[in-house]
Amino acid sequence: MAGCESRQVSSYAHNLGTVAANLAEMRRDKPDVELGIADLTPDKKKIAAISTQNGMSVHATSKNPERALMLLDLLQNDKEIHDLTMYGIAGSNYNPEGDKKFTAGPAAANYTGFSNWGWNSPLNRQDAAYPKEADDMFNTWQSSIYHFPLETFVFDTTPVKNEVANIGNVMLRYAIPLEYGLIDDLAKGQADLIKQLKSAGLDKVQTEMQTQIDAFLAAQK
Question: Distance between CA 214 and CA 201 in Å, rounded?
């Protein structure tokens, strides 16, 4: 139509923390772009990630696991080390704003791209530009979080460790080609996968898992 303004629109879906951080960066770097954040499922229950730490682990063959844990303790709980490894050099990569917040420094873009989330802790700072609407959304979600009965269940594979290993090998050989579309006859490929999983001991693993689940649920009552 004559006189109508042409606009370009884009969107993407991600977890709230990542979307909010990206929104803060875009508002800082592209102030001329109109930006917003929305809950795609406002009438649905929310689930919260359950974890025991921060995604860090010590390899079973480590000769000095206690030293690795000491390092992780410093990264998480020493304020100076935490700030340095999480945000970079103060005044360059970031500017501290009190003890809880920060703003981007002139060289903010030079300190990124690695998994420093591995030592998230209560010492984390929040970007001063973090969108208020994201905080409001997060706080609203707290009243609608659904907790699954098995969300803290951990399967002990010891009784079926050989079967679990065999199933892993079957998944590599038969499942991945199916996932990547490398099998022409999908029905046959699926049938072969199921047959191999059965041979590897899938039924035994399922039986053992159900036994542990039943005991876990009984203990919760």
Answer: 20
Kind of pairing, strands 126-127 and 94-97? unpaired
Q: What are the angstrom distances between the C-alpha of 63 and each of 71, 91, 118? A: 14, 39, 21
SS3 111: coil
214: burial class by Cβ within 10 Å (0-12, 13-18, 19+)? exposed
Mean pLDDT of 28-46: 90
Other CB atoms closer than 10 Å to residue 115's CB: what's the count? 9
Q: Say if CB 201 and CB 160 are below 8 A apart.
A: yes
How many alpha carbons fall within 13 Å on the CB side of residue 91? 0
The pLDDT of residue 52 is: 62
pLDDT tier at 221 (50, 70, 90 boundaries)?
A: confident
- For tokens 């629109």, the residue is 9
Please check the confidence at residue 5 and state whether its pLDDT lies above 70: no
Count CB atoms within 10 A of the CB of residue 37.
Answer: 14
Q: How far apart are CA 102 and CA 89, in angstroms?
A: 12
Could you report the per-residue pLDDT of 169-188, keeping only the tens digit for each? Answer: 999 999 999 999 999 999 99
Amino acid 1: pLDDT: 42
d(CA 123, CA 31): 30
Strands laid side by side in the 94-97 sheet: 94-97, 101-104, 126-127
Exposure of 133 in the CB half-sphere (CA atoms within 13 A): 9
Query: Residue 83: is its pLDDT beyond 50?
Result: yes
Residues recorded for the chain: 221
